[in-house]
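Quick start: what a row looks like.
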Amino acid sequence: MPRVRIVLVRPEAAANVGACARLVRNTGAEGLDLVRPGDWRTVECWRSAWGAHEVLEQARVFDDLATALAEAACSVAFTGRRPPGPHPLDVREVAREIGALRRDETAALVFGPETSGLSNAELVVCGRAATISSHRAQPSYNLSHAVAIAAYEVHRAGRRANDEPPRRATHAEKERLLGLLRQGLAAIQALPEANAEGRFAEWRALVQRTDLGARELKLLEHMARKMALARRER
């Protein structure tokens, strides 16, 4: 199994943070990451983290989601709505994908705040989106319940094969590629002057949701550099 981290973005209820820390211990996840949390170091948080207080003590806090995902080879945003882009996968499908990662790779299970969920921009940053099915009479789950389902499915999936698959590019490596790609596209005038950032967001979404091996990453970086170089030579 790969290393699995639970990422909570702007969590609002301290008790949910504590409950998720306990789930980290229940499912053998590596740890808990918090992005711009509120006042989470409360008595309620510690009470709900029964048996997993060291997970809270070791929780990492980040100012933005992209930094929190820098080490992740696979980042999955859980959402209860239909985001832009490809249709979200079912939680069990995502669990199988994560179960196929190498032991030295990291997967991030990302959850938004209780009242609003992840924004469209945050969904794009993650690359993948997943949903947890529910009855239409009560479609939304409590944050800690959603984390419990997702973490359990990943734990249950385990590894599907004995052979180690090739290492996937991390979020940070993909961002480096995107920087080169943006320069290359601009050099060959493949990005419009008007709304260049909006159009490039489609490239970012494409790259972040694609599994890239080391060889594929180098090929795309080489292509991006050549695009920029060809423009300068002309």
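That is the whole record. The chain has a mean pLDDT of 91. The first strand starts at residue 3 and ends at 9.
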